[in-house]
Amino acid sequence: MSPENLMIAALLTPLVGGLLIVLTGSWPNLRESVTLVTAGITLALVANLVPGVLEGGRPELTLIEMLPGLELRFRLEPLGMIYAGVAALLWPVNSLYSIGYMRGNNEKKQTRFYLCFALAIFSALGIAFAGNLITLFVFYEVLTFSTYPLVTHKGNEDAMKAGRVYLGILVTTSIGLLLLAIVWTSVLAGTLEFTPGGILAGNVQPGMAGLLLMLFMFGIGKAALMPVHRWLPAAMVAPTPVSALLHAVAVVKAGVFSVVKIVVYVFGIDFLASLDTTQWLLWISGFTVLSASIVALRILIQQGNLKKMLAYSTVSQLSYIILAAALFSSMGATGGSLHIVAHAFGKITLFFAAGALYTAAHKTEIFQLRGVGWRMPWTMGAFAVGALSMIGLPPAGGFISKWYMMIGAFQAEQMVAFGVLILSTLLNAAYFAPILYMAFFQSEEPLRAAYADGHDPWHVDWDHGEAPWPIVAALTTTAALTVLLFFFPDVPLELARAVGESGLTAGLGD
Amino acid sequence: MSEHLPVLLVVVPLLAAPVAALVPHPRVAWAITVGAAGWALYAATGLLGRVMEEGVIRYELGGWSPPLGIEYRVDAVNAWVILIVATIGAITALYALRSVERELERDRIPLFYAAFILCMTGLLGIAVTGDVFNVFVFLEISSLSAYGLIAMGQDRRALTSSYQYLIMGSVGATFIVIGIGLMYGMTGTLNMMDLAERLPAVMDTRTIPVAFAFLTVGFSLKLALFPLHLWLPNAYTFAPSTVTAFIASTATKVAVYMMLRFFFTVFGAAFAFDVMNVDMILLPLSLVAIFSMSLVAIYQDNAKRLLAYSSVAQIGYMVLGISFATVMGLTAGIIHLFNHALMKAVLFMALGAVFYRVGSVELEAMRGLGKRMPWTMGAFVAGGLSLIGVPLTVGFISKWYLITGALEKGWWPVAVLVLITSLMAVIYVWKVIEVAYFHEFPGSEDDDGALEAPLALLIPTWALVFVNVYFGVDASLTSRIAGDAARILLGEGAP
User: Fold this and answer.
1) Residue ranges per structural domain of chain B
2) Residues 174-233 of A with CB under 8 A from B
3) Residues B415-433: pLDDT tens digits?
4) Is 0.85 exceeded by the ipTM?
């Protein structure tokens, strides 16, 4: 198949899969097989696109012209390849996990759940393949609306409140700010195409460029830059597979992917670096990195909800990528792109572990994790790998991306950014290490005794073992991927390098 | 026959109306209505096709040439409006069958259909004619039949709201006829083209600005421009469902067309905008309309009334586009005529289906309907997304043009306001969706079975949903026509 047809096929597969999921809704086993097969085919199709892109191929095709000059268009380049690859690679794993989780917890409305998941992957791939801003925007909105039923899956008052926050922030920012920025760009530049080196250089005054960048950065609410990050902790009411694939990978990565894409292909790295009015992005992202880490640390100290802590860790890690993009250097863009992969593998593992704890024992709070390491060695082992990746230590993938980001900070002579990276590494260690210590070196006995009289609002099952096998298989796989990324980073690294180069006006790689 | 299309467009429905009134059986009357509306749609597409190919169509009624006779004159602008009226007319006519049987007494139904056809005829006539007095005549035909249609609503308040509309509408019509009379007094002609030629010579008199002022107020009343919109919410709320869907999607659109035609073709953009500075009135009023009416819509507890206020806000978008007086702005206004007709028709038709089953469109009564009427509420969600302006629906295309037009003029705050009010649309649409999908149905356990509306209501509704999405994905046709129309109005010549 030609790369163009592969792209279309990869996009259509989740859609067709979604339709089949609805049709087979009455036969759960068949329905889950459809999900797995669809996810597998999507992965195979996306994987087949990689060699061509590595060789410099940029397949493109126009779907339809909505208005003169306003086209739905796809054009695959390295950054899109990275994001599409991550989403497609983790979907099958997540589907396996979902089966274990949804059945293990007797969740309702599973057909709708799997359908919305397929739609979300469809829109994620659409975002990845987008050839211009309007296509990106269209799929961005589809992603928001298709994940809303997943966030409100439980259907109770809490879920509805969280759904309001979720939709409220994401829709407000995207329509109020992002759409305005896109129309403005189209008026200024006369085009919305993603072009290596950017389309805005020479078309906009410095002050306006700073304002436009601000509209874009806060308009992309999915990137969770403070203060538009509140939707992410709120979305944690969703079932854990949703938090894992969507709110650690597909949705949030759609946000930071768009950020990097706009920095590299709409503004252009050289253009942004030449302006004084765009430096604020470095500060605000650095602030987000640190303050979100501090919030996570506070949750640890209060021994609060594990998923909430992971959510704030995600907010912080997403801003790493924005920070890297805000260095406005090619090495920064490379590091940021690579961190999309590294963080995805690590964070999905952590969420998988959180969901495994819930499924096996209804444990959701950090204090309940004492001694759990020996009851669930696979789960907590994987958790440890994920935590290493978050902190940025070898042998986890997070080390590689952090390395490149630090080089980028040096290259751009931004010591502030360098300091933020170091400081946040310490903070990450401070809130992940104690959990591992509690899990492996503390005893569960005092807790057990305290809740023995039946006053346990969480209904924890203290005599649990490992989670069901699909869950264990899934989290072992992602943990393995995290380690493998450290030893074999070649493919993503090469793609990430191409991203860094194509941001320069010279346009080496593209 | 095709050269007589302009007049047959109006004459055939005009003759069908009395027949529909006289037949004893409601379903026969309905069939006649569908036939008349179907004919109008056929003629409208034929006209539009010819206009796209040949440019302006001129037709002299009875072979009498103007200024003695009446001339029908069709260009891209009114061919477009005619198509809107005919499309919505045909679809609501199909939809009417079951909805009207449910909401009206049997012996009134033939009269209802007669009034319905007359109303459509009037609107088509306003759009097709090139004679200003003929505009007034058709305006009266459509208005009078509309008053009757609204008064047939089940709720007793339909009578008072119809009366309110009658008073306001008659004031508007009087203003319009005074304006026309003043122009006739100064120029001695009623033909639009002749007026356009002769008016410049008498522009300096006091009479012509006065005529312009009278006409502006009259049109504003008819199109429900804030603050002359007071008749609209009640009329929409208490009219029969079919009537609301039809009138909300066509009557105000045709009034906007009249404003466009008089401002740009008859008076000329230079006079209207540079001498009279009408944009200084339209711009602030439309902005206030968009903002305040969106706000009011958020606080409504009746779904129909909520949409009625939203209509006033949406009319503000159209007038806003006109007030730019640029190709981009006018294109936005004109394309929104069509797009808004599509989305509002879907929404009101979905509510009609709700009324058919539930007997009320109070939000309170719509709890849990998402599960009980999935197709009806699905159509409502689709129409709501279009109203918000979500990509891949026609609403997005309108917003795109409007914001581009505002930014082109450098009117920052206007663009921002348009976006803010889109978000307000999210809130009021979501209000309905949340009630329908997240609140449990209050009734007893054994009563929560499916309640889906009959196919006779669903098929027309979903046909329009399809059109909403189709022209949202591929707007090349609609944007070309709207762009042509805008250039014609601004006198930049059609390609």
Assistant:
1) 1-277, 278-495
2) 175-176, 179-180, 183-184, 186-187
3) 999 999 999 998 999 889 8
4) no
